[in-house]
Amino acid sequence: MRRRQVEEDEDNKERWMVSYADFITLLFAFFVVMYAISSVNQGKYEQLTSSLGTAFTGENTPQLNNPPDGNNEHANIKGLYGQPSFIRPLELARRNDKQRREREAMTAMANNLANHLAPMVLEGKIKVMQNNRGVRVDIHDSLLFAPGASELQPIASGPLNEIAQALKANNHAIQVEGHTDNVPIHNDKFYSNWELSAMRASSVVRMLQDSGLDEKRLSAVGFGASQPLEDNSTPLGRARNRRVSIMILYDSLMPNQTDVSEITPDKTTVIRPTAPPAPEASNAPEATATPAAAQAPASAKPPAAASSKPAAN
C-alpha cells in the first residue's frame, strides 16, 4: 500500500515578533518598577540643586519653593535659608588654584632674586631655595658679620639692599632666622649662641626696614645651633651652619590677628583656695593674760620720779 505523503507547513517568517513582544514587555515592566521605587523627595531635590549650584559657582542658588519650615524633616540640615545643605561648597578646587598661582608667583620671585644675586650665588655665599613654607635665602655669615659679632659689616649692605628691593613688589611676610654652629660662645655681649643668633637676625631685620620694607612684614628669630644644615664635626660643615636665612612666607602661613579666641579654664575644674580649719575647742579653762601692773601687790608704791637735780656729794 502506498503511503500518503505528508505535506510540510511553510515556515512562519513572523515568529520573531513573539520574542520581540516578550522583550518589550519585560523592558516596560522594568522601567515601571524603577519609576515606582524612585519617588523623588521635592525638599531633598531642591536642597541638592541649591548645594550643587553653590559648590560650582560660589554663589547661593535660589530654591524653587518657599524656605522649609521648622517642622520639616530636613530642618536640621543647613541650606540657603540657614539650614545645613547636603553638600558643602567645594572650596578645595578654588583653594588649590589660588595656592598654585601663589606658588608660581613665588617661583618667579625666587628666580628674580637668584638673577640679582647671581655673582654671590655662583660663589656659594648665597643660596635661593623654595620649600613648603615659601622662598628661603641663605646668606653665609662671613658676608654679613665678623666672627663672633652681631654688627653688620659694610659689605653686607649690597646684598641686603638687593633683596629688599626685590621684596618691595609683594606683601608676603618675611621671617629672618639666625643660625650658628655648635661652638659655644660666652662673653660680656653674648651668653650663648642663642643670643648671638637672635642679635644677628635683629640686625638684618633693621637693615631691611631701613631699606624700605614695612616693619609689619618683618620678624626676627634666633635658632642658635638647633637647626644645622651640615655636620658640625668638620670645619666646612660648621661654616655652612653659620648663616642667616630670610624666609618669604606663603600668605597661608601669615597669622590672622583678627581670628583670635581666648581660652578660659573650665569652671568645674577651677580649684579655689580653702580657709584653714578652725582650732578644736578644749575642755580646760583658758588662761587669761593679766598685765604686770595688775599682779603687783597693792602695797607696792610706784617708783619715785627721777630727779633732774645732780646728786649731792
From TrEMBL:
Subcellular location: Cell membrane
Disordered, as annotated region: 266-313
Entry keywords, A to Z: Cell membrane, Membrane, Transmembrane, Transmembrane helix
Transmembrane segments annotated in the record for this chain: 20-37
Family named by the database record: Belongs to the MotB family.
One GO cellular component term: plasma membrane
Organism, scientific name: Methylovorus glucosotrophus (strain SIP3-4)
Top-level taxon of origin: Bacteria
Biased composition (Low complexity): 280-313
UniProt membrane topology term: Single-pass membrane protein
Name under which the protein is recorded: OmpA/MotB domain protein
Main localization (coarse): membrane
Annotated Pfam families: MotB_plug (PF13677), OmpA (PF00691)
Residue span(s) of domain OmpA-like: 132-252
Annotated PROSITE patterns: OMPA_2 (PS51123)
InterPro entries: Bact_OuterMem_StrucFunc, MotB-like_N_dom, OmpA-like, OmpA-like_sf
